[in-house]
Amino acid sequence: MKKINFIDLFAGAGGMSEGFVRAGFNPIAHVEMNANACKTLVTRSAFHYLKETNQLDKYKDYLTGKCTHEELLTNLPPTVKESVHNYEISDDNISEIFKKIDKNLNKDIKVDLIIGGPPCQAYSLLGRHKIDVENDPRNVLYKQYGKFLKKYKPKAFVFENVLGLLTANKGQYFEDIKTHFSNLGYNIDFRVLDASNYGVLQNRKRVIIVGWKAINGVNHEFPMPDVLATSTTINAIFADLPSLKPGDIINVVNQEEVVSDNLKKHSLDSSIGITTQHITRPHNKRDLAIYKLAIETWNTQKVRIKYTDIPKIHRTHNNTESFLDRFKVVDGTSISHTLVAHIAKDGHHYIHPDVNQCRSISVREAARIQSFPDDYFFEGPRTAAFTQIGNAVPPLLAYAIAKKLKEKLI
After folding, report:
1. How far apart are CA 164 and CA 133, in angstroms?
2. 234-390 belongs to which CATH class?
């Protein structure tokens, strides 16, 4: 069967790409400006190649410290090693990016699909309080995306972003994006999808724009994914992980021989029998006292504490009028609230539901909430890993979209 080739723009740690690869698509290139995320993309590309060639023991050797990253890459062909491009997508760099991508193309390899979503902080509701939205250069990154459509002329594209895209500048930015893509020769449709409807244990709504190359007489509908009912809870997908105290680090955890159905159903189990990066940040005594109060209140009353509920001795400022929900416990008996990159700065909004652990969630727990499998490794320090996870498209959401899109592309 002919491979459906794609380019992933603004790729981050590869959550969207992971879903499309799982659905049988073939990545030609990833473009990402963050160096840690690029290294993660290379590592994941190594995983997929080594899995396909029955050499996963070499990937496991890397995760368990038996070989270096450089040694891992010696097992890969140039087309895999050179498929990740560490560039900011801008007027200054775009010609060089095209040259790098074109090296891996030939007459038999065409770009069928482009996926990705530009950085979304400029459109996020939270971001509007911190930046000058009108003059933020990220607002026109869709035009850079459009340059890839113009050059490679894929059959379709998938563009992901936050809900704020629909209403920013009273909806004008969204209208500009649709007009721009239409002018490039694509029929546009969009939906707001909630990741929790597709196996992700998280309330996470995102705008998904799909564009089809305009062909006379052909009218493609939006590839609406099939709903996958969530049949488990946060407590269940955390249950097999060792208990941690604040600041504890467990780099490698051997998975049980019998992996729980909860992990399997939500594609969280590991292909190599180990789980990595069960790492949590340290906390000071004041925060731990607040966490304890927040966990006990949530678990017994299902009430989230406000900043005004915290004893004055534990407060760090006198603002009792705004941002009162800065401490939030992940609901262990259901699914999580939306995970965002701010988790890299502090864990106050993602407190573990187990009062005996009394800490914010670990890197691996955050990855599971985002539906990354346990064999997915995030390069860089703890904060970089949290940023990559928080910014990612959940792989299971991407997989659901990819499966339905594939039916229309084949």
Report:
1. 11
2. alpha beta
The whole-number pLDDT of residue 29 equals 97
- Asked whether 387 and 209 are in contact (CB, 8 A), the reply is no
Rounded distance between C-alpha atoms, residue 348 and residue 288, angstroms: 10
- Residue 325 burial class via C-beta count within 10 angstroms: exposed 0-12, middle 13-18, buried 19 and up: exposed
- The residues annotated as belonging to the active site are 120
Domain 5-223+393-409 class? alpha beta
pTM: 0.93
Query: Any bridge partners for residue 213, and if so which?
Result: 186
Residue 143: pLDDT over 90: yes
- CA dist., res. 390 & res. 387, Å (int): 5
208 sits in which H/E element: strand 205-213
Q: CB–CB of 274/64 below 8 Å?
A: yes
Cβ pair 113, 155 in contact under 8 A: yes
Instruction: Indicate the pLDDT class of residue 130, thresholds 50, 70 and 90.
Output: very low
Cβ atoms of residues 207 and 165 within 8 Å: yes
Domains 5-223+393-409 and 234-390 belong to one CATH topology: no
What are the pLDDT digits (tens) for 57-71? 999 999 999 999 999
Tell me whether residue 253 is exposed, middle or buried, using C-beta atoms within 10 angstroms of its C-beta: 0 to 12, 13 to 18, 19 or more.
middle
C-alpha distances (whole Å) from 44 to each of 23, 76, 78, 118, 151 are 16, 12, 15, 21, 27
Q: Give the H or E element holding residue 261.
A: helix 261-265
What does the pLDDT read at residue 315? 77
Does position 4 have pLDDT exceeding 70, yes or no? yes
pLDDT at 216 over 80: no
Indicate the domain borders of the chain: 5-223+393-409, 234-390
